[in-house]
Amino acid sequence: MSFSICRVQWEQAAPLLKDVREKVFVCEWRIPKKVEFDKKDRYAYHMLVCDDVTQEPVATGRILSTGEISRIAVLMSYRKHNVDHKVMQGLLSIAKDIDLNEVFIYSPLESVEYFRKFNFISAGAVFMEAGMPRQRMVCSVDSIKQANYYLTH
């Protein structure tokens, strides 16, 4: 399988980005739409991955100018193809383009050890978001290991 990945703006690509995120976060994870789609979408940098054969959107993620990486979503049938890796590479490229020194994620608690393998470290106390326990994790842009990444809201 081959994929196209591109940086997109919310105003132009919202229907495609919403399609993927609704299927993953609203339908699969049961996160309320009003939580999933926030005002930050308008200001974020977004990555969109499409299947080259079907031209359908299959994955997305966003990064804010603050360094927050979030809303990484991959359709279930594409998760075995390491599409999340492509999204993360794109987001890290944006982080470098906008001169960020550090990025951070709010990891699901069960994924903390997974992110530690890629040089993310825990920062601060565990907290609840959308009914799920989360841990803030940070990493220097220069020290992130390039590997497969886990879905994160």
UniProtKB/TrEMBL annotation:
InterPro entries: Acyl_CoA_acyltransferase (IPR016181), GNAT_dom (IPR000182). It comes from the Bacteria. Transmembrane segments: none annotated. Residues 44-140 form the N-acetyltransferase domain. This is N-acetyltransferase. It comes from Thalassotalea insulae. The lineage of its organism: Bacteria, Pseudomonadati, Pseudomonadota, Gammaproteobacteria, Alteromonadales.
